[in-house]
């Protein structure tokens, strides 16, 4: 214990309190660094998820576009088959009339 102008100081106690405060500050810095690392990892995971979502949305749009094209192609083929069937029906009818 020291006496400075009538004020007493316990130097040893003060050193211990300072050491405890320094240790607590180091602990807080460590926790902050861990939190920052976790936040960075979460941001990276979110960015990767967003990239994957964008890619899947592109595939969905492409698939929908392909499906629309296939529906149009199917409709054209069906119309063609119906037209050919009608022509064959008319030809058969005409052939029956000629044979009669």
Biggest sheet: strand arrangement = 1-2
- For the termini, the CA-CA separation is 136 Å
Strand tally, please? 2
- N-to-C order of helices and strands: EEH
Q: What is the mean predicted local confidence, pLDDT?
A: 91
Estimate the strand proportion.
5-15%
Structural class: mainly alpha
Walk me through what this model shows.
This protein is mainly alpha-helical. It has one helix and two strands. It has a two-stranded antiparallel sheet with strand order 1-2. The longest helix has 89 residues, at 11-99. The termini are far apart. The model has no long low-confidence stretch (mean pLDDT 91).
Quick rundown:
The protein is mainly alpha-helical.
Key terms for this structure?
100 residues; mainly alpha; two-stranded antiparallel ribbon; 2 strands; 6% strand; rod-shaped
Topology of this structure?
Blueprint (H helix, E strand, L loop, with lengths): L1 E3 L2 E3 L1 H89 L1
Antiparallel strand pairs: 1-2
């Amino acid at each position: 214990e020291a006496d400075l102008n009538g004020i007493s100081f316990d130097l040893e106690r003060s050193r211990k309190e300072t050491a405890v405060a320094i240790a607590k500050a180091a602990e807080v810095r460590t926790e902050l660094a861990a939190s920052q690392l976790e936040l960075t990892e979460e941001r990276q995971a979110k960015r990767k998820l967003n990239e994957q979502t964008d890619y899947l949305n592109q595939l969905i749009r492409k698939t929908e576009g392909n499906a629309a094209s296939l529906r149009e192609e199917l409709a054209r083929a069906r119309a063609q088959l119906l037209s050919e069937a009608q022509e064959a029906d008319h030809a058969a009818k005409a052939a029956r009339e000629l044979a009669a």
